[in-house]
């Protein structure tokens, strides 16, 4: 499925951010999103039932906030349904895009109208090992064609709709979407880094977190339902 389209403009990109009780970190996120909005991006924040000031802070800053049933996949699907743009980018609340993100996506679209992809990831934290962990995640992603949510997955709406969006599950929704999309076309792997928070790695320890992540992936590959694995991820 290849459709000829003109080169996309910045306004063709919708950035969809699921959030839940993010008031503490929201000011920095909103400042980041404001820069992207000034570049022409459509911004949608999708709240999953925050009990803090998240919605008020976002609306006060002038952003559009949607409400959806709690669950990252459900929230992102709700944002995609409401977006007007032809390219959807899904951004975690603790991840920041590179300054040239929109231009890089536009360039990719010029060569592959029916496309999807992700950025490399850089984990920001105190542990020195996080740089190595980031490199290994990016290497694995290039080899397997699987992207994680921290890598800021982007996809043209046509492909997203054909595959039915994110599966309604509490974990591994990014892996399932990647598996589905790569059956149509391989991902665009951008080497520019999206920087994501390493707070989980710092608080739980690098090796413990690595072990947990691989344990979850191994269990999921063996067929353990995502609903059961979600409890271990908390």
Number of strands: 8
The helicity comes to 40-55%
- What is the element string, with H for helices and E for strands? EHEHEHEEHEHEHHEHHH
- CATH fold-level topology: Spore Coat Polysaccharide Biosynthesis Protein SpsA, Chain A
The CATH superfamily appears as Spore Coat Polysaccharide Biosynthesis Protein SpsA, Chain A
Uncertain runs with pLDDT below 50, 5 residues or more?
Answer: 1-10
Question: DSSP strand (E) fraction?
Answer: 15-25%
Q: Give Rg in angstroms.
A: 17 Å
CATH architecture: Alpha-Beta Complex
**N-to-C span:** 39 Å
Category by helix and strand content? alpha/beta
Q: Overall pLDDT, averaged?
A: 88
Biggest beta sheet attributes? 8 strands, mixed
Q: What's the arrangement of strands in the largest beta sheet?
A: 3-2-1-4-7-6-8-5
- Shape by Cα distribution: globular
Q: Helix count, per DSSP?
A: 10
When the domains are counted, the total is: 1
- The first-level CATH class name: Alpha Beta
